[in-house]
Task: inverse folding
């Protein structure tokens, strides 16, 4: 089949038209990450995150790993851009979700690198998906549309627990790969060690508020209550972690001050 630039342009336009909220979040990510990490690293995060997510979705729709077995309905094929059987916009969501979780993990732990930040990022990604995926499988009740389904359903409002484990793993791979990459870079590029995660934290809560708001709009009260309860437990855990980090910092500072000559 010959390449048709006009048709490709129409598919890209259709992708944006059908999912404007995704691209609004993407723009917020690009601006925030460029200021935080530097433009080069923001682009690297986007490309790497999209690649990991696409491979994960492609594999899941064929062998059920890592999200569990699901299928796209392809009801919008010819209207929006697909790569094989995966809608382009869907994999594109993962980089900005991973970045938002990465920023909240950095804000909580007070560091930009390390296994603790990577580990907490994966947990925060999975917590977001507790709200996102059950709403997505009800896409026919709001503007998303019925774009995918789990053949055997799932125990959490139609979503299998394997899906949340998959988000945990994908979050680890995206941010873990990024952290390893910048650790091996010595080019002096402004990056996560000196940037501010504040805008990314705001993005995390913006995405969460959007999904909770849509859950409220479609009248899924039990799902809304469960989502709020899970998020409240998660934020309590973050608070306890941040208090522990602050206590450890105070203890180290006090020890340094008490030492002779500040050593």
Result:
């Amino acid at each position: 089949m010959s390449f048709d630039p006009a048709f490709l342009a129409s598919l890209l336009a259709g992708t944006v038209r059908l999912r404007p909220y995704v691209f609004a979040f993407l723009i917020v990510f690009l601006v925030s990450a460029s200021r935080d990490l530097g433009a080069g690293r923001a682009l690297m995060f986007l490309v790497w995150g999209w690649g990991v997510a696409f491979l994960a979705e492609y594999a899941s729709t064929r062998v059920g790993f890592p999200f569990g077995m699901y299928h796209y309905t392809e009801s919008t094929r010819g209207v929006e851009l697909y790569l094989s059987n995966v809608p382009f916009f869907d994999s594109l969501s993962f980089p900005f979700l991973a970045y938002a979780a990465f920023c909240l993990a950095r804000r909580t732990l007070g560091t930009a690198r390390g296994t603790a930040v990577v580990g907490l990022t994966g947990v925060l990604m999975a917590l977001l998906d507790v709200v996102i995926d059950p709403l997505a499988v009800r896409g026919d009740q709001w503007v998303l549309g019925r774009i995918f389904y789990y053949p055997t359903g799932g125990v959490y409002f139609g979503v299998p627990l394997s899906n949340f484990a998959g988000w945990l793993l994908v979050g680890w791979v995206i941010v873990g790969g990024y952290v390893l990459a910048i650790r091996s870079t010595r080019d002096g590029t402004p990056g996560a060690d000196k940037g501010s995660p504040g805008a990314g934290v705001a993005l995390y809560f913006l995405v969460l508020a959007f999904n909770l708001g849509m859950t409220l709009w479609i009248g899924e009260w039990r799902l809304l209550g469960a989502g709020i309860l899970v998020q409240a437990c998660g934020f309590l855990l973050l608070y306890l972690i941040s208090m522990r980090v602050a206590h450890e910092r105070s203890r180290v500072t006090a020890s340094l001050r008490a030492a002779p000559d500040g050593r």
Observations:
- The longest strand covers residues 71-72.
